[in-house]
Amino acid sequence: MKTYLGIDVGSVSTNIIALNEASEVLSSKYIRTNGQPMECIKNAMKEIARDLQNLEVAGVGTTGSGRQLAGIITGADIIKNEITAHATAAIHFYPDTRTIFEIGGQDSKIILIKNGMIVDFAMNTVCAAGTGSFLDHQAERLKVPIEQFGELALTSTKDTRIAGRCTVFAESDMIAKQQFGFSKGDIIKGLCEALVRNYINNLGRGKTLTPPYLFQGGVAANVGIIAAFKKELRHEIIIPRYYNVMGAIGAALLAKDYLEKNGYQTRFSGFEITDVNFVPKTFDCNGCPNACEVIEVTREDTVIARWGDKCGKWTNEISYSPPGYLTEAACS
Amino acid sequence: MKLTFPYMGSTIIYQKLLQLLDHEVIMPPRPTQRTINLGVKYSPEFACFPYKVLLGSYIESLELGADTIITSGGHGPCRAGLYSEIHLKTLRNLGYHVDMIVFDDIYHYPKLFLERLRMIKNHKSFLQLIRAIYTSYQLAHAIDSLQKFMEIKQAYELEQGAFAKAFEIMRQKFAKAANTVKDVQCLQREGEMLFSSIPVHEPPESQKVRIGIVGEIYVVIESSINTGIAALLNKLGCEVTRSLYVSEWVDHALPRFIKKSDTAIIKNSKKYMEMGIGGHEIHNIGHMIHYKEQGFDGIVHLMPFACLPELITQSLIPKISIDLDMPILTLAIDEQSGAANTLTRLEAFVDLVRNHKLQKAG
Ligand code: SF4
Ligand code: SF4
Question: Is the ipTM of this complex over 0.95?
Answer without folding.
Answer: no
